[in-house]
Amino acid sequence: MLDYTHLAALRAIIQTGSFDAAAAALNVTPSAISQRIKTLEDQLGVVLIIRGAPASATPAGQRLFRHAGEVALLETTLGADLNGLLPDETTTQIRVVVNADSLDTWFIHAMSQVDGFLFDVSTDDEDVSADWLRRGEVMAAVSAHAKPVQGCESIPLGRLRYLATACPEFAERHFAAGFSAATAKHAPMLVFNRKDHSQHQWLQAEFGKRITPPAHLLPSTRGFVSAAIAGLGWGLNPEPLVREHIAAGRLVTIGNAPIYDVPLFWQFNRVTGYALQPLTNAVKYAAKQWLEQ
């Protein structure tokens, strides 16, 4: 049986990056933290923490850290159900992975509606975020995949709408002869990172063949919008972020069918599903307000 005071020490070290900071967070001495980790490592027969600056977890330590987080989340929910008979866990974190465009448009609105939790948010492309769940690194994910990861539930959220946009000067300079495969081939486009194939997929739908224009790599959702306005290139921008710019004439849509919709799904670990219900409810509500249904 694992001693959860020892697990709390492990969590605190990984969260803060040092034994001293973990001791301060738990109101104990650094030697007490060190002794708890040594006892836990001796009990399990594996090294859990790599001593360094910062301290970091071994794979076994990371797996135990995830387990401790799940237990803390479940105990927080249990304490609420028992009218506070269990001690409050004020540092319980919900670990999620969200695509950057969702984080910059609607997901923070969902987070703001949930009380009593801290968030540990990572960002990754919606096409690969389910892999984080598969590896057990997060409790929930915004994903482009409807099929749930083993041990998870999947809820459809709606479609995040993108518009192919550029500033008027860029469109005039590169597409004066019309938006065609020939002109698009030479017009610089914006790509979030090497996992981002959205622009290529949209061009494929426009022209029925793959086109590979020169590209800027720009891993920032709002930077995408700013770059398009500045004339650096064209890109698929989230409609909520460019609506006002289009109305003001700072951006124009390009192509015959400038709309590109990405279906999104909320996938979460079934074990912690009940404890995550407040966040799931908030995610579903925010999605109805911001996404195409």
At a glance:
With 293 residues, the chain is an alpha/beta fold. The protein contains 12 helices and 11 strands. Strand 3, helix 5 and strand 4 form a beta-alpha-beta unit.
Helix-strand blueprint:
Layout lengths: L3 H13 L2 H8 L3 H15 L4 E2 L5 E2 L1 H23 L11 E6 L1 H12 L6 E6 L5 H6 L5 E4 L8 E15 L1 H8 L5 H4 L4 E3 L6 H10 L7 E3 L3 H10 L4 E4 H9 L4 E2 L5 E11 L7 H14 L3
Parallel strand pairs: 3-4, 3-5, 7-8
Antiparallel strand pairs: 1-2, 5-11, 6-9, 6-10, 6-11
Helix pairs in contact: 1-2, 1-3, 1-4, 2-3, 5-12
Description:
The protein has three domains: 4-61, Arc Repressor Mutant, subunit A (Orthogonal Bundle), CATH 1.10.10.10; 93-158 and 263-290, Periplasmic binding protein-like II (D-Maltodextrin-Binding Protein, domain 2, 3-Layer(aba) Sandwich), CATH 3.40.190.10; 160-261, Periplasmic binding protein-like II (D-Maltodextrin-Binding Protein, domain 2, 3-Layer(aba) Sandwich). A hairpin with a 5-residue loop joins strand 1 and strand 2 (56-57). The relative contact order is 0.14. The chain is of the alpha/beta class and 293 residues long. The strands form three sheets. Strands 3, 4, 5, 6, 9, 10 and 11 form a seven-stranded mixed β-sheet that branches. The protein has helices at residues 4-16, 19-26, 30-44, 59-81, 100-111, 129-134, 168-175, 181-184, 198-207, 221-230, 239-247, 277-290, and strands at residues 49-50, 56-57, 93-98, 118-123, 140-143, 152-166, 189-191, 215-217, 235-238, 252-253, 259-269.
